[in-house]
Amino acid sequence: MKRIDGRELLDRLGIGLVIGLAVLALALLLLPAVIVVVMSFDTRGYISFPPAGFTLDWYYKVFNQPVLVNAMWTSIKVGLYVTALCVALGVPTALACARGDFRGATALSVFVLVPHMVPGIVLGVAVLFSGALLGIGPSIWLQSISLSVYVMAVMVRTVMARLQRLDPLLEQASANLGATRWQTFRTITLPLLLPAILAGAVFTFIEGVDNLSVTIFTHGYRDRPLPIELLAIVQNTNSPLVAAVSSVQIMLAMLALLAISLTIGLDRVNE
């Protein structure tokens, strides 16, 4: 029988401890979502765990209530608007921060992070007051702008991280061969940045769909997104309908992550 010395025993204990902590962290992340999904199939008229039976009636009720269906479409539209704004503004900002040769490049990269560091409630109130000064009331557009300001840093930092790992000699070689800056960007830089742009787009879309702290101050009365409707349901009922609506939000987030996995692969997000 092979004898294990003290150092090898400590190494095995350390590896076991790390694996145990990783499993615990994964359980803490996944169990709440799993419990919510399981409760959404309960046959009883109130939230309880474990469920007493299995039914799809609560999902039927979700998709047969015009208010909730409209809220889902509003959330999806807001997510798409936020994604479009973050791509259109975030990618040039990341290029300016990572490739710009001017004195304020570092300050600009720090400034982009500021809105994301501010609590969402504070940013929501600030955008609401700013919109009032400009004559823009709560609406789907104000909501999209406020969320874009809030999550722009995600797109900028994701693209910047990719840019910092790109070899600048590739762009220099393209310029030496006579290509213009636009040709270099279109044929060299953009294809290499595409995985990071797609990853940032998906994460900003998820935030645009699921955000509550900013949305609660900037949404319009006729453009109530799904998180706002979910909050109203929680305040008025204790039925598994709440779990079913939450499960729909989880499904939208999972579909977005599945889109990354099928297009660029999750393993390439940080390449």
UniProtKB/TrEMBL annotation:
Keywords: Cell inner membrane, Cell membrane, Membrane, Transmembrane, Transmembrane helix, Transport. This is ABC transporter permease. It is a multi-pass membrane protein. It comes from Bosea vaviloviae. Residues 72-263 form the ABC transmembrane type-1 domain. PROSITE patterns: ABC_TM1. The chain crosses the membrane at residues 12-41, 78-98, 110-134, 140-160, 188-206, 241-266. Belongs to the binding-protein-dependent transport system permease family. GO terms for biological process: transmembrane transport. It is found in: Cell inner membrane; Cell membrane. Gene3D superfamilies: MetI-like (1.10.3720.10). Pfam families: BPD_transp_1.
